[in-house]
Design goal:
By secondary structure, the chain is α+β, with helices and mostly antiparallel strands. The protein has a single domain (3-150), classed as Roll (Thiol Ester Dehydrase, Chain A). Helix content is 36%, strand content 38%. Strands 1-2-4-5-6-3 form a 6-stranded antiparallel sheet.
Length: 151
């Protein structure tokens, strides 16, 4: 998985989902552990000068969407992806100057099951988790299910 693929996905989001421009979504990085989406605190703070909860929720949700996109692309599938379930827990305020949502790669067996079902049925659901850290502690814990349908 490449940085250029994440950059392309973020550009797609900025073009097709206008609110992502408002909070200035940016590609962070892609590596062996997962991917990162980020947004600056300077345009995403609340009345307490910490990260706006809506931005935190959006970054986590979109990091899962981007991860699902990368998993589908890795096996050559062009898909339509939607979040179908999400759960978000705020555990502490986030005051980092750059807010970062980290989404881990799914376990290999989950990826295999997802891509096999997608190939057989043309549709599958992938469960993912993400987090946002602040001051070296977890500030947000997220889990979501993403439905992918082959186009």
């Amino acid at each position: 998985m490449s940085q250029s693929a994440l950059e392309r996905l973020v550009q797609y989001l900025r073009e097709k989902v206008p609110m992502t421009c408002n909070f200035d979504i940016r590609p962070g990085a892609v590596d062996g552990s997962g991917l990162v989406l980020e947004a600056p605190l300077a345009s995403n703070f609340n009345d307490k000068q910490t990260a706006f909860a809506g931005t935190l929720a959006s970054l986590c949700t979109l990091s899962g969407w981007a991860m699902t996109s990368l998993v589908c692309e890795a096996v050559g599938n062009q898909t339509d992806i939607a979040v179908v379930r999400s759960d978000l827990r705020y555990t502490r305020p986030c005051s980092e100057q750059m807010i970062r949502a980290y989404c881990r790669w799914p376990a290999p067996e989950d990826t295999a099951r997802f891509t096999e079902t997608l190939g057989e049925r043309g549709r599958a659901v992938l469960s993912l988790s993400a987090r946002v850290d602040s001051e070296s502690e977890i500030a947000v814990v997220y889990s979501g299910d993403y439905s992918a349908k082959i186009l």
